[in-house]
């Protein structure tokens, strides 16, 4: 019944705006006698714009549209103007030449709920607060020294994974890779892993993290057609977002409180004043919530992205036995008969690096990069991009551009 009401309402809006179909879509704007040319655009529908042309996999649909209309397209998702870059040249201008201009992020109701109203690093507006939080993460989690300090964590968790695989006759690689990356990130960012809570506790944490990531990447019609936000209430989407946001927030706050209690109980010769000065020197003026933001970003950026690439790499190796055999030969040669390969050996495994690069080319973990918006109007590839336009880079299409790659749809041993 609800579907009929929604479709009837959309049909009414379509009829009201039908007259717009007879008006040609302008490709230029005249502002004080200055002609500015917008990127090519496929035909749009009233109300929906180009939303009807996005299939289940938006990056594939946009790749098909780019082949017809060019590597830089101007679309409209509901009421939101969108520019999509599907070539390396256009992406370079957006992300390198004009990177400061495109440092703004696009607002999303789901991201606002899940990421503390744009207070985290990935969605916060560019400014002093963003720089401070980014600095905390870089110095204490992502610097070369800190990454090397977590080497033991990575090697221990990898050894646990290999032992588990040897002990089992049938292995679920997806679950195994997810557990590995989650445990490494947990130990690095939070000091412990949560898969060891037992079957129920570990599964609950993994399910919570999975649903958090699914919601973060979900399509929210209210972001593009604001007067249809009420649909999320009837479908239960809003309640689902609120529930997961609270559960994940409670989990991270409990982790921070646990660490705080450990520090308070730790015997130390330092005075309280010494500890406060040390904390301020290490972190600057940073609140508990900002620590939570950093932890949240580590999960959002470092878990499913990593194990997704591992899954695709194993899939392609199983499809290409010769590549698999050559990789095994390299591992035996570099490992010199040892049972395990350590991180020092990876520098010599050039074929492995080539395999991973080819995997990332074909299967980028985020096919459509995080949308940006320019703070000022700018010219990209000879086309005018107005200020505030939602700008997307289709990494999937760039990795499969026939103008750059030979046989782009094939997992090839190019340069291996």
From TrEMBL:
Gene3D superfamilies (alphabetical): Cytochrome P450 (1.10.630.10)
Signal peptide start-end: 1-24
A matching Pfam family: p450
GO function terms (MF aspect): heme binding; iron ion binding; monooxygenase activity; oxidoreductase activity, acting on paired donors, with incorporation or reduction of molecular oxygen
InterPro entries in the record: Cyt_P450 (IPR001128), Cyt_P450_E_grp-I (IPR002401), Cyt_P450_sf (IPR036396)
Source organism, top-level taxon: Eukaryota
Keywords: Iron, Metal-binding, Signal
UniProt cross-references to PANTHER family, sorted A to Z: CYTOCHROME P450 71A2-LIKE (PTHR47955:SF15), CYTOCHROME P450 FAMILY 71 PROTEIN (PTHR47955)
Family according to the record: Belongs to the cytochrome P450 family.
Protein name per the record: Uncharacterized protein
UniProt source species: Linum tenue
Organism placement in taxonomy: Eukaryota, Viridiplantae, Streptophyta, Embryophyta, Tracheophyta
């Amino acid at each position: 019944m609800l579907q009929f009401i929604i479709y009837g309402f959309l049909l009414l809006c379509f009829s009201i705006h039908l007259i717009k179909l007879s008006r040609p879509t302008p490709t230029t704007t005249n502002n004080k006698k200055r002609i500015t040319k917008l990127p090519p655009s496929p035909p749009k529908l009233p109300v929906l714009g180009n939303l009807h042309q996005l299939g289940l996999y938006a990056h594939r649909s946009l790749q098909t549209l780019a082949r017809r209309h060019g590597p830089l397209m101007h679309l409209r998702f509901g009421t939101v103007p969108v520019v999509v870059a599907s070539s390396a040249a256009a992406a370079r201008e957006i992300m390198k030449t004009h990177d400061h201009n495109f440092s703004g992020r696009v607002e999303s109701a789901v991201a606002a709920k899940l990421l503390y109203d744009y207070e985290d690093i990935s969605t916060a507006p560019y400014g002093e607060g963003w720089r401070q939080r980014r600095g905390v993460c870089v110095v204490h989690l992502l610097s070369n020294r800190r990454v090397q300090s977590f080497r033991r964590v990575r090697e221990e968790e990898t050894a646990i994974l290999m032992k588990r695989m040897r002990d089992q006759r049938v292995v679920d690689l997806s679950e195994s890779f997810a557990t590995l990356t989650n445990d490494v990130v947990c130990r690095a960012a939070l000091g412990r892993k949560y898969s060891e809570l037992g079957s129920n506790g570990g599964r609950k944490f993994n399910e919570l993290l999975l649903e958090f990531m699914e919601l973060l990447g979900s399509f929210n019609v209210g972001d593009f057609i604001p007067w249809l936000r009420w649909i999320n209430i009837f479908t239960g989407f809003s309640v689902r977002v609120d529930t997961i946001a609270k559960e994940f927030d409670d989990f991270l706050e409990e982790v921070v409180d646990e660490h705080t209690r450990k520090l308070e109980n730790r015997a130390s010769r330092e005075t309280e004043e010494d500890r406060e000065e040390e904390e301020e020197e290490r972190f600057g003026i940073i609140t508990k919530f900002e620590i939570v933001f950093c932890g949240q970003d580590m999960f959002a950026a470092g878990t499913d992205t990593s194990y997704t690439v591992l899954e695709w790499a194993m899939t392609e190796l199983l499809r290409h036995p010769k590549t698999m055999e050559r990789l095994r030969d390299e591992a035996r040669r570099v490992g010199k008969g040892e049972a395990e390969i350590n991180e020092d050996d990876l520098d010599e495994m050039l074929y492995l690096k080539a395999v991973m690069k080819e995997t990332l080319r074909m299967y980028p973990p985020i096919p459509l990069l995080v949308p940006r918006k320019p703070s000022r109007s700018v010219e990209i590839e000879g086309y005018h991009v107005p200020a505030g336009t939602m700008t997307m880079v289709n990494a999937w299409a760039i990795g499969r551009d026939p103008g750059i790659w030979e046989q782009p749809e094939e997992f090839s041993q190019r340069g291996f």
